[in-house]
Amino acid sequence: xxxxxxxxxxxxxxxxxxxxxxxxxxxxxxxxxxxxxxxxxxxxxxxxxxxxxxxxxxxxxxxxxxxxxxxxxxxxxxxxxxxxxxxxxxxxxxxxxxxxxxxxxxxxxxxxxxxxxxxxxxxxxxxxxxxxxxxxxxxxxxxxxxxxxxxxxxxxxxxxxxxxxxxxxxx
Length: 171
Fold this sequence. Notes:
It is a single chain. The protein is an alpha+beta fold. The protein contains three helices and three strands. A hairpin with an 8-residue loop joins β1 and β2.
């Protein structure tokens, strides 16, 4: 027998030996007085209450499950819309080298519009307007739902090219 198994075997033998005298005392006990009969109406009320609470918990669990399923479906739609907008921005040759990031928020219920935010920096206001036109055109042609577009595109002019720095050469 392995030394690590020895304590477990010892407990399996000694624990029942110690519990047998306690169990014999428990078997000898008898109720002290007459028992009262349980009122059937009171027992039915308790069972009814437990069933109502269980049904309520199942209803809440079902509603939460449906809401999570709907949220998952809406997140999938948001990823699809984001892909459409990103692809539309990539198709425009003037916007190709710019870091423009669309983010999409699809509401849980269908009554609210889909919110598209486009963030990034462009060198001129013309490119900012071109990016927004491209996003609006893609949303109008590819999406069947109402869309709200928010621009977070900053115009940061490219710094003028300065003459190269001269370095001293050792002769």
